[in-house]
Amino acid sequence: MKKKISALVLIAVMVLSTLTGCSGDEPKTVSTDGSTSMEEVIGVLGEAFMKNNEGLTFTYNPTGSGSGIQAVQEGRCDIGLSSRSLKEEEKGNGLTETVLAYDGIAVIVNPNNPVNDLDMDTIAKMYKGEITNWSQIGGKDTPIVLIGREAGSGTRDGFESITGTENACKYRQELTSTGDVITTVSQNPDAVGYASMSAVNETIKPLSVGGVTLSESTVKDGSYVIQRPFVLVTKSGTALSETAQKFFDFVTSDEAVELISGAGVVAAK
């Protein structure tokens, strides 16, 4: 599914590569920009939108939450995608957030790691460098390799704010996409990282947190505590183009709930 979606989005981007802005240059196109964690869900929704609306096109630029928010602010896209809530200063700069879905942030390790569960306090101590060896928490006698996302990432912002590790993480590597984090952890038996629930695959192992396994139901009932919103970002008081508004209405409708769930996240509706 991901390969199909990525190919579809890539074709759309290539066809429209001459565009320099958003809806004003091509009224039959809706452009989105931002969170790499939202790739699966926004890709599924974009594919369904184009299938149901012949002649209209959807594009997605996976730049990260911070870049997507800035793109909306500067008028370079119709709708920004953020995997964190807007900050008060961003709202004060004329941006509006609409929560599309909720996503659990998985704490992931290599499948060969014997550790299966960590509590929040232990996770925080690991990322702050207070616990440095897996043997301290029931694993092998090897150093813990901390993997995280780059500054400006919505996943990083969500993880650090929930675990109380803002500006304190001792990362070995800071990577620019969810896919890169998963690949790195899958290749290093001593690594630990974090990634969107929707991106978890068989190459890595998600840990339970405080005895609670990550799932759609535990995100929905709040028992899995490391979770964040997936947000659509628009300009306050500025009307979307007809095509962009049609896309916005579709992805926030009851019709989209099943598609959102199928993409591995929990619809906000």
Quote the distance from N terminus to C terminus. 24 Å
Shape: elongated
| Structural class by helix and strand composition | alpha/beta
Strand content: 15-25%
From the alpha carbons, calculate the radius of gyration and give it in angstroms. 19 Å
Oligomer: single chain
Task: Give a short account of the largest sheet.
Answer: 10 strands, mixed
- H/E element string? HEHEHEHEEHEHEHEEEHEHHE
What percentage of residues falls in helices of 4 or more residues? 25-40%
Mean pLDDT over the residues: 91
Q: Please count the helical segments.
A: 10
Low-confidence stretches: 6-24
Number of beta strands: 12
Sequence-ordered SSE layout with sheet pairings:
Elements: H1 2-15, E1 29-34, H2 39-52, E2 57-62, H3 65-73, E3 79-82, H4 88-92, E4 95-109, E5 117-118, H5 120-127, E6 145-149, H6 154-163, E7 173-175, H7 178-187, E8 191-196, E9 205-206, E10 208-209, H8 216-220, E11 227-235, H9 242-251, H10 257-262, E12 266-267
Parallel strand pairs: 1-2, 1-3, 5-10, 6-7, 6-8
Antiparallel strand pairs: 3-11, 4-8, 4-9, 4-11, 4-12
General description of the model:
By secondary structure, this protein is an alpha/beta fold. Helices cover 34% and strands 23% of the residues. The protein has helices at 2-15, 39-52, 65-73, 88-92, 120-127, 154-163, 178-187, 216-220, 242-251, 257-262, and strands at 29-34, 57-62, 79-82, 95-109, 117-118, 145-149, 173-175, 191-196, 205-206, 208-209, 227-235, 266-267. Strands 1, 2, 3, 4, 6, 7, 8, 9, 11 and 12 form a ten-stranded mixed beta sheet that branches. It has a two-stranded parallel ribbon with strand order 5-10. Strand 6, helix 6 and strand 7 (173-175) form a beta-alpha-beta unit. Helix 1 crosses helix 2. The longest helix has 14 residues, at 2-15. It is elongated and about 60 Å long. The relative contact order is 0.21.
